Write the structure tokens for this entry.
Amino acid sequence: VSHKNYLVHGRTYCDEEAWLDYMEGELDPNLAIDMSLLLKNSPGDRKRLDRLWRARTLVKASEYVLVPEDARVYECLHDKIMSAVEEKEIDSTPETNVKVSRTLTFDF
Amino acid sequence: MKSDVELVSEVRSGNRKSFSELVNRHQRALLRLSLRFTKEQASAEDIVQDSFIKAYQKIHLFEGRASFKSWLYQIALNTARNKYREKLFGGGDKRYDSVNVDDVSLGVDPGAEVGMLKADVRKRIHVEVDRLPDRQRMALTLRIFEDMSFKEIAQIMGCPYDTAKANYRHGLLKLKERIEEMSGTEAGAYEDLALFEASTNTNLEVEV
């Protein structure tokens, strides 16, 4: 499947980028309708969208995080948190604000 | 029921009970998020605990522009990332130990449902997700597994909306390539496509 570009509102999209936005519901509604019409008449674009959707579906289906169901786990966690909080005070010094805003920023 | 913002306001006024309510509301979601990054319950619980303590101490920094949950997620992701660093520098990267990545084939049994992906396929895809650069993995995790909007993801990652979207896009496109490589030939990749479409019963086309 060869790649091509779309000119959308003065911006050039590569086809995968446009189809990914389409899949995620991120396109302007009018443009999404145009893209839907394109889908009906372009098997290449249909395949491209299908491949993206397949990848997304497989990734989503691969999830295996097992969250504990036992309520006692959460009671225990809650109590541990609150007993730690009992020993802490709210920090309101302005110097710390600067420090914390740095540590809370993703830096890579 | 009081909103998170109201509870935060009460915590600021010295009411620790209100913080207890915030913990009850959000600890499960935070534990699930932490488990995605650590894979171990004990480490994940440590992240949750550390995150809530940090949130309590820095509660005056919560401005209410994003939701309390988004703010909490931001703290948890940073905490998880810092713990990962310790692990990487301390004892080596153990994340891939349980998976022999060269000995796994991608394929789906006829009739299998998306929720019943073969364990080896599931592991293989997880390995690939783990291999993504951190920001791409975070954006992808928050979007696909947590169903968050790009606006929320941008708030949590502390970056512009377009950057959050670009990180997600790069991550997913990389995974798509890897999944297709795992599938073998491109033609082979399409063999199970119809199955996935049928099993997810999703119509991607916009109503015209």
